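Posting for a labmate who doesn't have an account.
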Amino acid sequence: MIKDIQNDSVDDFQSFIKNEVIKKGNKLKGKHAPISEIIDRIPKSLSIDKIIDLGEKKKNYFLLIVKNYIKQPKFRYFLAISLANNSSDLLVHIAKDYAIENDLKLIQYSIFPKTLRIQLLLLKEIKKVDDYTNYITKLSNIRKEFRINLGKIKDLLENK
């Protein structure tokens, strides 16, 4: 019985991603470099299957569909928001506290491989439909706060 409930929720999540997110977004073309995560001090590679730009209604949001390094689940889904279009060490240093406080992953990644711009992304893995809507608002608030702090730094430099 419990196994059936878990399978139903996985099926609901899969259909939600397929029907509500992927159909409404735009798939980004091109080959994408893999991302990695560290498990037990060993880096594991997660190859990118698709990147969906959720830009029409959710600007600066992306859904990364990655192939898992283990068999089950076959794919993992990461909701990403772009904090900055051009990443730098300074921006990473400023954003790392947001990532640590909110249990997010912070990566420098080229979403558009034909351009040489490396974006600063905050990632959160989503596993349920409720996670998707909750993290959209949470990531939006973090981005707003990050941009405000970035503006304060800019003002301090200009007033010097």
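Reply:
Got it, the structure tokens are right above this. Helices lie at 2-22, 89-101, 129-158.
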